[in-house]
């Protein structure tokens, strides 16, 4: 059995940020009122994907909610991990955007007095998914917060939030964790071989969540390998079109695997709560509730597909980054070290200028997918730039 990790142990590679939040939590527990120089009622945690933004938010929440213990007591930690603590409010969307009604409900909840502790902690993951109108609903809560409510927002960067929200939060920036730190975390937490953990951390480019998936999920490894092989096999426009179809199919299958089982469980649970037996007829008066659930599931499927496509393009960026480094004679270790011979072959089949154009095409494709451009056309346009000369 794996040893229980401490409150802050999963925040690998972030010593400065941990020190800030530990000091703030200590200030809360050492006096009846927070210390002005260390604690504030609203925080913004920013950093690149996989840097551990939400992990830090929940660790800080557990420290604030633990009675008299900034390191977190076991019972509170379990409640925070399960999102069942009565003084913890969480907004974590699986859709493309956070709706205004979701934020209104959280703002209303933030006005309640703490039930078991001295604070209520409200966490919004992916705060960058709020529209301006929705952000303005949150703004009112940040401007006039109850004295015992602490807000923690998470976003990739400060620029992802409107200026008026940014001006009312204290920002803490996370950095990209070192490969060794991520590998050590994966090895300790997930109990995998250190060599496998290091390879997963390298191929995930220090993204903690993706490193965990690559180290523990064989399907994720196969998907990544197929992605790289499809790109390396492109020689003609026809090859690019075929590869685009294959990548879209992989992303779609990945999204379905993530969402289908959960969708079925949610529907069964909804039917039970409405008193409808499995296979029974749904009364007309209740169909609107199920339609709402189905619409939410469709939005989640859309986001899941976009996330899958983005993971594919991040893997492709690592591939062409390695090719470019070889073309330029760099001594930097490749991310995809296990296919070094294929990388060298690809590096000799194009110029650095062509590889840079491919990298730019991938970045453009990521923006287009985020803007809801048709995935098939986006992938085709991207991969046409990846054609290589046939070696003589």
TrEMBL record:
What ranges does the record give for the region Disordered, renumbered to this chain? 260-283
Q: Which domain of life is it from?
A: Bacteria
Tell me which stretches of the chain form a coiled coil.
none
Gene3D superfamilies listed in its UniProt record: P-loop containing nucleotide triphosphate hydrolases
Q: Name one Pfam family in it.
A: DNA_pol3_delta2
Q: Where is the composition biased (Basic and acidic residues)?
A: 260-270
InterPro entries according to UniProt: DNA_Rep/Repair_Clamp_Loader (IPR050238), P-loop_NTPase (IPR027417)
**PANTHER family (UniProt xref):** DNA POLYMERASE III SUBUNIT DELTA, REPLICATION FACTOR C / DNA POLYMERASE III GAMMA-TAU SUBUNIT
Read off the NCBIfam families from this record.
PRK07940.1
Protein name per UniProt: DNA polymerase III subunit delta
Q: Which organism is it from?
A: Leifsonella bigeumensis
Q: What is the lineage of its organism?
A: Bacteria, Bacillati, Actinomycetota, Actinomycetes, Micrococcales
